[in-house]
Amino acid sequence: MPTLFDELPRPNVEVTSGVVHLPNFLDLGAQEKLVSQSREIARSLAKTPLAMAKPQLRSGQMSVHMLTIGRHWVTDQFRYVQELGGTRVPPVPAEFVELAHRTLNKAGELSDSLKAWSRTFRPEMVLVNYYEPTASMNLHQDGYEISEAPVISISIGDTALFRLGGTENRNKPWHDIPLLSGDVIIFGGANRRAFHGVPKIIADTAPLGCGLKQGRINITIRQVDL
Ligand SMILES: O=C(O)CCC(=O)C(=O)O
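Predict the joint structure of the above. Result:
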């Protein structure tokens, strides 16, 4: 179902220093391919310690289902591992690696700090979060990550309201950015450690052909080592 946001012009933009929004970066075919690749990996890990699940944090259980590729996020100790309970974490597929470089090249046209990463970025880890229409993600900082490399974030399915705050605390002012299916947002540079989250998913807005009938997946591609 179309939303109000579909009617607004949405140019590529540097939202704030080091944060670039690339609306409609992926066409429906590319979105569907990423969804089916992610689904295939999730199926291959079902019933293993790496099965897609809602992570348990010290602060409570997250409402998103999370799949980790390349490295696995061990939430109780906030670190990344390459194997868990005898199951090896699957490698990052070549298509995700290529996509990361393509998005950074594009974003580099608008941000010098992202341009600097476009040749050196190593896509070592992919987080796939599935949001049911009622799910959300609290404002948080990716504070336990040691790398200053930017995070590439891809949205597929229902529209999400993405909230980006400052680097010091969760307080306003915020940028509230609707992320539609096919959008990419990259955050790095001065805002690599900005607080961010997803307060709301707008149900029934996933476009036909994106690979998801309802809900949203967010794919973040990350370099985790220095
Ligand atoms: O779903 C999103 O757009 C944000 C995901 C996120 O904040 C994260 O994985 O750290």
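Residues 19-222 form a domain with the Jelly Rolls fold (CATH 2.60.120.590).
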